[in-house]
Queue: 2 jobs
Job 1
Amino acid sequence: MKNILIGFAIAATGLAACNNSSNQTADTKQGDAKSDTAMATHQQVKQVTNDTAGTGSTPVTSVVKFPANELITGYLQLKNALAKDNSKDAAAAGNTIVATLAKVDIKSLSDKQTNGYRDIADDMKEHGEHIGANAGKIDHQREHFEMLSKDMADFIKTFGNGGQTLYKDFCPMVNDGKGAIWISEVKEIKNPYLGSQMPDCGTVKETIK
Ligand SMILES: [Cu+2]
């Protein structure tokens, strides 16, 4: 009887692997330390925007024009291309992300924002460039996408979701068994790491409204 129970336990663990078990450490690890600063920066963004709008004396051109939406859109295009195993479109989206980052007028951000942004943007740029330069090497693109997705999650925490509901998804089967997250605009799972091999592997871990 004991053996049977152990057998069940093992089977249950195996099944849970594609669902929810292994990522809890990942989420908690990433969470608390960062969220305080992230929230603070986010508040700051709002405040600055309001101030600028309020003073009236500020010329329209100096209003913070931060392409948060464009960056998110570029990332989502990349994510969808990878989910379709389309390395060429993924490369194009990687280049779009790099081009969008180049448009950011860093002088329009406050010092505090600039620091938060620089860390994320430098990293994003590097991954965008590698993805753009590696059409035809989808495995390599996916490695960079894994790191870019963490940047994107940080970016959204800091600068918001651009007004659209987003989902933070997790697949425990990739990244040498460590699992990986991605950001999606649809609730349905479409795995960008495994593509057609296992399109629906993963779960929604967080809804970002
Ligand atoms: Cu690379």
Job 2
Amino acid sequence: MPIRALGRRHRKRIAQHLLSLPERDRYLRFGYAARDEQIQKYVDTLNFSRDEVLGIFNRKLQLIAVAHLAYEPTPQIKGRAAMAEFGVSVQSTARGRGYGRRLFERAALHARNRGIDTLFIHALSENGPMLAIARKAGAKVERDGSESEAWLRLPPDSVSSHVDEAIERHMAEADFQLKRHLRNFNAFIDGVAEVKTKLGKNSGKSAKQ
Ligand SMILES: CC(C)(COP(=O)(O)OP(=O)(O)OC[C@H]1O[C@@H](n2cnc3c(N)ncnc32)[C@H](O)[C@@H]1OP(=O)(O)O)[C@@H](O)C(=O)NCCC(=O)NCCS
């Protein structure tokens, strides 16, 4: 499933995805059991001009995973490495398929191409899957009781890292458009079938009259 960059027009779908998360997942994602109003506020204040929001759509074009790469407001603190923070959620029925890891890798690539040298993840220490993703990518994980912080140093950007990102972006757009056409085509076929059924019923009735 290709990863797509999300924009302002996706706010509603991002909210739907996050609001569908059960209490425990909200706790793991935000660090507290976020209420609906808090989630809505988070979505309403997402800064698409500054940050990168990534998503994965299934075949029915439902948003099943969302990642947020938050850049610190510019200018960054002098003398400190340029940093971005990563947060992610995958719909429970779509877990264990590598989507979380792929979103992380894509966010790291995006950050790297924007001159960021450290990716930061704040997670609860009990969050095995998130910490597994970070560790596997080579992040340094520091545990402080119930909370953990992971730091991933990113290599400098290169021509190939920019090409990789451009290709992924292009593939994701093509995939989304294909899914959209397929959905419209299926709706058209369903419509034709419905009309045929109705016509069949009507001709049956008139044959009896
Ligand atoms: C964290 C989350 C995004 C992972 O999504 P996912 O698509 O299932 O993740 P992936 O399939 O890419 O990988 C999960 C990894 O965790 C591992 N894992 C699963 N359960 C685990 C556990 N209890 N302890 C340790 N590792 C675990 C898997 O084996 C896999 O590692 P692998 O690729 O080496 O096999 C998802 O669980 C989620 O949305 N959780 C709720 C929100 C959240 O916790 N967000 C992160 C905080 S920012």
